[in-house]
Design the sequence.
């Protein structure tokens, strides 16, 4: 899968690396769904490729082949251990020690830390030492969706590479190519929901998540219009309560946001014009409470059913 919006980043990073202008610790950051990991893998391949010039990564040298087979001796991963929820100090110590060694294959040693924001405090402190005293021919590549969660001391010692959402037309065209069976309005909606992150939007479409999200929106609109909905709706949604509540939160947030702004009623948002922002805000507040309760052992269909009844009552009262 080629990601056309990353090409400019590849060109810039490649030139910086070839001209030896790239800092020893690039930090690739930006919202999820933009292909940061694809870019990081490419950069790592370029750093390690034996060609060592503008043709890297060549894809054919021993280094490139070892990378493909997942057994490169000069590549280290700073990841969350399987039985943990954070990157621990032991992980950072191990990769830092690995970076001190002479490259086994040829040009460099690289450590990929991902997701960097999941380093705990001790791990981040241990990394600082490596960042301050970089070994020769050693690179630290950090990837993060949330660089704001990294300690400022770590952030300031990295070369920040910001990945932004691509131009909308480019993203729409790419998605249409990846998902030819999807309608244009479906693709546009997925991209809206994902704040223009194409990979996230593609996943939404492929996992059939979008279809469910649209169904949730329709139920909310039908209830607001006083129409009957399928009697087993709450029951059906209770099989995946978190997903259902997330979608309700998404639509409610979008409606509330639009109505709180000056442009008030967005044409075609589907809700009655009489619906007040304060009503939506109260429904939002109740939804947040419902979400908390959904984490307990309370029966989910009752929680969802109650919230839907309350939602319906907002509009019944206005009649
Ligand atoms: Zn190569």
Sequence:
């Amino acid at each position: 899968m080629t990601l056309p919006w990353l090409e400019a980043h590849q060109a810039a990073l490649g030139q910086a690396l070839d001209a030896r202008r790239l800092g020893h610790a690039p930090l690739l950051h930006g919202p999820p769904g933009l292909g940061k990991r694809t870019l990081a893998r490419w950069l790592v391949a370029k750093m390690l490729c034996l060609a060592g010039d503008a043709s890297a990564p060549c894809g054919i040298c021993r280094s490139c082949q070892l990378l493909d087979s997942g057994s490169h001796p000069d590549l280290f991963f700073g990841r969350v251990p399987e039985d943990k929820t954070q990157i621990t100090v032991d992980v950072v110590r191990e990769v830092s020690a690995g970076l001190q060694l002479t490259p086994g294959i040829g040009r460099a040693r690289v450590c990929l830390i991902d997701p960097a924001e999941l380093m705990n405090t001790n791990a981040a402190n241990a990394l600082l030492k490596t960042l301050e005293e970089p070994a020769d021919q050693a690179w630290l590549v950090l990837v993060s969706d949330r660089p704001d969660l990294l300690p400022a001391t770590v952030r300031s010692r990295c070369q920040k590479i910001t990945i932004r959402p691509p131009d909308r037309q480019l993203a729409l065209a790419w998605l249409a190519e990846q998902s030819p069976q999807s309608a244009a309005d479906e693709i546009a909606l997925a991209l809206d929901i994902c704040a223009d992150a194409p990979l996230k939007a593609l996943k939404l479409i492929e996992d059939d998540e979008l279809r469910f999200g649209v169904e949730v929106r329709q139920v909310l609109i039908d209830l607001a219009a006083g129409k009957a909905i399928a009697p087993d709706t709450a029951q059906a949604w209770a099989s995946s309560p978190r997903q259902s509540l997330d979608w309700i939160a998404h639509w409610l947030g979008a409606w509330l946001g639009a109505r709180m702004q000056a442009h008030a009623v967005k044409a075609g948002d589907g809700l009655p014009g009489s619906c007040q922002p304060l009503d939506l805000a109260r429904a939002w507040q109740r939804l947040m409470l419902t979400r908390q309760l959904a984490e307990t052992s309370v029966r989910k269909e009752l929680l969802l059913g109650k919230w839907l009844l309350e939602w319906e009552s907002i509009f019944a009262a206005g009649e």
